[in-house]
Amino acid sequence: MFINAKVNRDKLEHGDDPDTVEWVKRQNSLTLEQFSKGLDFERLVQRCRDLLKEEQSRPPIPTRAEDGNLYRVFGEGLGTLERRAVDQDEWMQLLDLNSLSGVENIRWMLNSYHIDPISDQALISLSKEGSDGCKIMEYDLSKKQFVEDGFSLPIGENKAVWIDADRVLFKSNHKHSIHGQKTVSLSKEIEIWTRHKGSETIFSTIKQEEEVDFHYHRSGNLVISSRSLHHEFSNYLVPDLLTPKSNIPLHLPPQAQIRGFIDNRLIIITGPPWYNFPMFSVLAICLKTGQVTQVFTPLKGYISQVSVLSDKILILERRLDNFDLWEICYNNGSFKRNRLNYPLSGSIEIVSSTEQSDYLVFYFNYLVPKTAYLHRNTCPPKLLHRDPDMFDPRKFEHISYCSTGFDGKQIPYTVIKPKDLVFD
Q1: pLDDT (tens digit, 9 = 90+) per residue, 365-422?
Q2: Which conformational region is residue 333 in: left (phi greater than 0), alpha (psi within -120 to 50 degrees), or beta?
Q3: Are 191 and 171 in contact (CB under 8 A)?
Q4: CA–CA dist 392, 390 (Å, integer)
Q5: Burial class (CB within 10 angstroms; exposed 0-12, middle 13-18, buried 19+) of 317
Q6: Among candidates 348, 335, 233, which has minimal Cα distance to 292?
Q7: Rounded CA gap, 33 and 97, in Å?
Q8: Helices marked H in 39-192 — which ranges?
Q9: Strand 410-418 relative to strand 134-140, pairing
Q10: Contact call for residues 83 and 69 (beta carbons, < 8 A)
Q11: Cα 130 from chain centroid?
């Protein structure tokens, strides 16, 4: 996209603003004008349309595993949110985004959803016309309808998670009312909703330049983080959600990235070296004793993804042209590392939920189409989906090489060739 104007982020959050609509039209016109000058433009457009039809005709890939169920967004247009049990084949529709958009005459897009496993209620985050801002509404998955007088947040940079069936932890950057009670909630405040009782602030700051976020686990662990424009971090442990503002300063390494919780241990990635721990180490800090355990430190590459589940940590370690996927299991205070058996080269993605043990792995390379596997407990990975082959991969081979650059650094490159081709 070609952009010849400054972007006002606040306006982009509201896609129906007249100035925003006019700005988008101007930028789209400029982009189309630039790309349509090429001689192959129409051919490329038709090719894109053909690929889109081909993609829509393929069996959809599950996009999430949670509580023994698989979830996916499927269908034409905005699609539907669907669910099925892991050991069954039939999908059940939960939410039809096309119908919702038709009733309100607004194009709502699914941004995210957080499910309470006990009540089967969900906090659905919807983006209006694809804008940055989203609204959050409570949805009954069993009745397949939004809950009347349920939890809701208007459009903004919102975040909300379940504490239990009647309490929600949230932050929002908009003023709003809850069940007819006028309350003020800004992005600088983190609050707890109690159903039919209103909200209670557990953290607030008057520093307008700070960004505030929280990390919560249903075991009761809550850490609140704030970051200034100068990347100065402050972290607070909230030991008791029933006692507002019972915050205890939590001293973490400078620029540490919080990834989640296992048991009563906070999982972080260090920034600069901290005490005897090297840069970019994965550490587990016991919130009761303060004991620090070094879980993982990359030796040959760098960490590109860390996912914290209920009983394990998944770490994707990348190197020049390959990777290792590590599963680090937690049991009674100790961690055990195991390398998962995926090919070293290719593209890989992990999809998981913080309070679950199940997770999905998506893998593909030059010869293997996109493939989805379900990892559940100690069972071998289950193949859920594989895109059709566009050619016969058995006739080709994948070879990796490295070339030395002018500065002496190794530059990886890959050759895909027929197996019977001999280089001269």
Answers
A1: 889 999 999 998 777 899 998 888 888 989 998 888 888 888 888 888 888 889 998 8
A2: left
A3: yes
A4: 7
A5: buried
A6: 335
A7: 33
A8: 41-57, 97-104
A9: unpaired
A10: yes
A11: 17
